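New to this. Explain these tokens.
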Amino acid sequence: AAAAAAGEFLCRQTFRWHPSCPGRVNVPLLVTGLPHPRALAFVDEALRTRGIRSKLGGVGMEASVGWHFAARPTRLELHPATSLLQAPGEPWAYVRHRQVFHLVLHPLSSVAALARLSNTDMELLLDLIPQLRDLVSSSSTPLVRAMALYVHVNEFIEQYADWRFRLEETSMEFLCLEGNLNRDRCTKPGPDHFASSSSDHPAVTWAELEQASAEWMQRTRNIALRYGYGHSYGVQPGGQQIPFTAAERSAGTVVLL
């Protein structure tokens, strides 16, 4: 019964492969996470530079990369203007991925990016997980909404992802190899480590998040600590990152789920 329930969840609410899911196309790898100006685009570029047939915001032959794949919309025809969401009868609706990698970033960077989402992208994100709409609509400020999204979208992806990685410290060659993609191409030269930009990190602090909502700040911080972003890990003005402590680094850059 548990296996059947797991299969139903994967088939109905995710793009991950499961033997019970209908599907005509099985892509080896999906990399997904929260919307961010450059993070997922960097992963896609790193894979394509190595010759991996990846596609940002769409279905690639070897890898699909995009936050739109974080959950499976209940009505894929909601946004016909995009190349991403097609009617349920179209082939794209039946694409599945053999592995799912969960990309995470420092929460201050992620929350800042979510607070600046366009109305169009916000609507797309809310369509992915139905219960988010009421939750976010009841949140009074952009920062509170952003923290609520950070918590719930990440927790949703955790339910089915095979691997979680901190982009700031993960080699793209290692990610490619871990995805069981072509070894010869994975080891080719290409972008390997994500470099933060000052534009990625507007002036948002833990104190400001606490002022917006102490409850949501604590829930955000709890996830951050679980993901390996310890109290000593932060982002300074100008985008300079504070390195992990030895204890934090010993936990590993990645988490195999």
